[in-house]
């Protein structure tokens, strides 16, 4: 602040102090006591409303939510223990895929492959006039049970509803990886 601003502030403060002193001196002793009591009650009410009440209501709210928070903490700890246990146990190795197991899996879904070629971890299938819904259901099943994923596919819709010609190339995931 500049010196003139300080001087104005001091002058205003002095005028205010003089006005308050004049007001106070004009009051009788009884009025002064009443003003002190009223001022004390107002100050106590402000302290209660601004400091004590928020602390008490916040404490009550925390006390009310504490059991729920403890339950959530227990659930998180259990999930953490479960995750550690799952990480410690490696995934079981995927089943060995053979041409016969692939044909049996397809037949269980009502699909008859034109050809099935199994080499190492790669499977090539050709289906003609197959149900698209059955094919999608079979793919979902082998993804979960045999850990197969689609590498390449060509699907051609036929004129009949829900019928397709499909050529699929699938790969079995290695035993160290998890599907899902």
TrEMBL record:
The chain crosses the membrane at residues 35-56. Gene3D superfamilies: General secretion pathway protein M, EpsM. InterPro entries: T2SS_GspM (IPR007690), T2SS_M_periplasmic_sf (IPR023229). Residues 59-89 form a coiled coil. It comes from the Bacteria. It is a single-pass membrane protein. It is found in: Cell inner membrane. Its main location: membrane. Keywords: Cell inner membrane, Cell membrane, Coiled coil, Membrane, Protein transport, Transmembrane, Transmembrane helix, Transport. Belongs to the GSP M family. This is Type II secretion system protein M. The lineage of its organism: Bacteria, Pseudomonadati, Pseudomonadota, Betaproteobacteria, Burkholderiales.
